[in-house]
Design a protein that fits this description.
Helix content is about 45%, strand content about 15%. The protein has helices at about 15-35, 70-75, 110, 120-135, 140, 155-170, 175-190, 230-240, 250-265, 270-290, 300-305; strands at about 40-45, 50-55, 55-60, 85-95, 95-100, 105-110, 200, 210, 215-220, 225. The longest helix has 20 residues, at about 120-135.
């Protein structure tokens, strides 16, 4: 699949066309430096950065004028068993950070998901978690590089409450939902300092893994964060238990993630942490998307409503 320079890629539908064209032109310049032709490369999944793969390389470039030096430092410090492709180069052009890595054979796990059997899906989530655990075990060497906040984890309790306030205004939450929302956030920030702080991938999604009969690589560490293991666990559970349109799925893969989460979350504070992390995850997505999407039927809104229900939505088996 080749992307026409004149077409609008689905990942760019809600972006400013001028900014999108600039990012694409910068990516083309970077690709050319490494022997690539962007017109012959395929656009890969991912929202916060634009990525093209082909001609033996993968080019990731930031949509906004931000650098990638911290992520590069993390990537270079990762154990090789994580499977991340070799970094060929990195830099900043017109303020936009970029990374060029070697192309490795494999399919984006999210794109492959619909073609996998139930047994393959279960194996995939277990293998994805095994790759994440390699990162967790490398915390001693990563802790000085990985930040204590980022991605969907706000820097402070006040910042989290501000995000909750914005969601309340946008969604018109009921008084019961508001009360539960603030209670869950408070529970997370109260418990987080009491447990071991590990290097989390921070965005443990299917689209951030490569599949070639097995999970062969874990990608995109821009949201790596030092914190409770429940940060990665809540994403893993959501990926396997919730459909793209926000409906619950009963599956072997989902049951496997519930089993993994029950085993690895903190025995005392785990329910508060995984519930809080999941809520913070949806609050971040609501901040990103509600300006351009129909609120009523949008996935994060549906998920947040479930998480604020009496049983805790898709986390219900873990909150008993």
């Amino acid at each position: 699949m080749k992307e026409s320079s004149k077409s609008i890629h689905p990942l760019d539908e809600h972006r400013d066309p001028i900014s999108t064209a600039l990012v694409r032109s910068l990516a083309a310049e970077v690709a050319a430096q490494y022997g690539g032709d962007l017109a012959r490369m395929q656009r890969a999944n991912g929202y916060s950065n634009a990525t093209w793969v082909g001609n033996g390389i993968a080019v990731r470039i930031a949509h906004t004028a931000v650098g990638m030096a911290r992520e590069v430092a993390i990537l270079r410090a990762l154990p090789k068993e994580v499977g991340h492709p070799e970094i060929l180069g990195e830099g900043t052009t017109n303020g936009h950070g970029w990374i060029v890595s070697a192309e490795i054979r494999g399919q984006n796990l999210h794109e492959a998901w619909s073609t996998l059997t139930p047994a393959q899906r279960e194996a995939a989530v277990r293998q994805l978690w095994a790759r994440a655990q390699i990162v967790h075990d490398a915390t001693p060497s990563l802790s000085t590089i990985v930040a204590s906040h980022g991605g969907f984890i706000p820097a402070t309790f006040d910042a989290a409450i501000a995000a909750a306030d914005r969601a309340n205004v946008k969604l018109g939450l009921s008084s019961a939902q508001q009360s539960q929302l603030y209670k869950v956030i408070e529970g997370y920030f109260r418990a987080a300092p009491l447990v071991e702080q590990i290097a989390n991938h921070g965005d443990l999604a299917l689209m951030n893994a490569l599949w070639e009969g097995d999970v062969i690589a874990l990608l995109d560490f821009e949201f790596a964060v030092l914190g409770p293991v429940e940060i990665d666990l809540c994403r893993l559970v959501c990926e396997a238990c919730v459909s793209d349109d926000g409906h619950l799925i009963n599956s072997d893969a989902g049951n496997a993630t519930i089993e993994i989460a029950a085993r690895y979350m903190d025995p005392i504070h785990g329910p508060s942490l995984i519930h809080g992390a999941a809520v913070l995850d949806q609050l971040r997505d609501i901040d990103i998307w509600t300006a351009s999407e129909s609120v009523e039927d949008w996935r994060p809104c549906r998920l947040l409503a479930g998480l604020l229900s009496v049983n805790g939505g898709y986390l219900a088996p873990l909150l008993k």
